[in-house]
Every structure is written in structure tokens, then in C-alpha cells.
Amino acid sequence: MYNSIISITLFAASTLAIVIPSPAFNLPTGWEYSGCYTDSTQRRELNSDFYFDMGSKAMNAETCIPFCESRGFAVAGTEYSGECFCGPKIPLQMGTTGCYMPCAGDAMQVCGGPDRLTIYTSITTNPGPAGWVSKGCYTDNVSVRALTALEQVPGGSEQLTVAACTSTCGALGYTLAGVEYAGECFCGNEVQGMNVPFQGGCGMTCKGNSSEFCGGPNRLNLYAVA
């Protein structure tokens, strides 16, 4: 009899399945899931705007994204089941694990975890304005710049867009243009030093257009005359 009870118990335990919530898929037009990222209560990765919604049990991507989008932000992140954070750029550090907590408003959807953000974005890499083509994300170095000429776009750094930078560089006779650190425009005719294509790091949005990337710290989105 004892053996039968043990067998039944083991069988029942083996049939239990741990349901891990998944990211949202029915997202607003232009938005996509970008991954799980690390966060800290001491230094928030998305600190432009936020709201907490634990009590009403309504938090999920479908409520967080419109909140951030209505305030002009291209990055939205859910955290710890009931928290929503907004910002203009993707966090620097991706967390491979830790996003496992179900949303307070949808138990089948993941809303980050302790010090983890489930990130959604509406940012794209501009394929290149007319006459230009994207060459991807490149490394840069303050000692040896990939493109040597730092130029001002009309309106200054606060108005930087990919189109503004390529137009400025083209008017000056350059064949390469690079946008970096959200507000910098570099021009040149060849990539200098040891700077090379790099997968990652171009996660900052342009100050003049939050829907497109403008490089990052020591990273630039490079464009060439088509």
C-alpha cells in the first residue's frame, strides 16, 4: 500500500508543469519586444517617467506601452509585476535571466522581475535617407575617431536626426556620416583607426527623432553615400 501511495505521488508530481509567462505579442503598431534587461532601484535604467499599478491588477504591456508612447517615449519596460517605466533609450545591460514574474493584469504575460525589465521599443535603425545607405553600428574612440569631422546640424545637437547629419555631411562634400551619443554628427570619407562594425551598443535615440537610433557611447550608426 505504501508503495502505491508513493507511486501515485511521484506520478502526480511528474505531471505538474511550471508555466513561465511570455512577452506580449499583440503590440501597438510599430512596437516590438526587445528582451530582458537589468535594472536597479538605486539607478533606474528607464527614469524619464513611470507609474506603479499593483492594486488594480491592470498592469501589462498593453497598458504600459500606451502610457509611455503618449508621453513621447520610444522605450517601455514592465518590472516586478506591477511597475511601468519609460525612457528614450534601451538599457545598456541585457539580463539573460530574471524576467519571470507574471503581470498583475495578465498572469500569462511576463512583467520583468526583481531588478529586471521586460523591454518593448518602437525604435528602428534608419535604413538611410535618400541617396544614403546604412552601414550598421560601428565602434568609435575619443582618441581615434572613426570619422574625424564633428559637425553641427541645423538647430544644434538637440535637433539631430539621421537625415540632418547625412544632409550636413553631404553638403560639405563628405561621403560618410555617423550619428553618435544621441546628439553628435561626424563626417568623413573613410573609417579611421581600428574602428570596426559592432553588433550592439547603438541603442540611443536621436535627440531630434526618438523613433530612430543615433549611436551610443563610443558607438555610431554609420551611413555612406549610395
UniProtKB/TrEMBL annotation:
InterPro entries: Sialate-O-sulfotransferase (IPR051589), WSC_carb-bd (IPR002889). Residues 1-17 form the signal peptide. Keywords: Repeat, Signal. Residues 30-123, 131-226 form the WSC domain. SMART domains: WSC (SM00321). PROSITE patterns: WSC (PS51212). PANTHER family: WSCD FAMILY MEMBER CG9164. This is WSC domain-containing protein. It comes from Massariosphaeria phaeospora. The lineage of its organism: Eukaryota, Fungi, Dikarya, Ascomycota, Pezizomycotina.
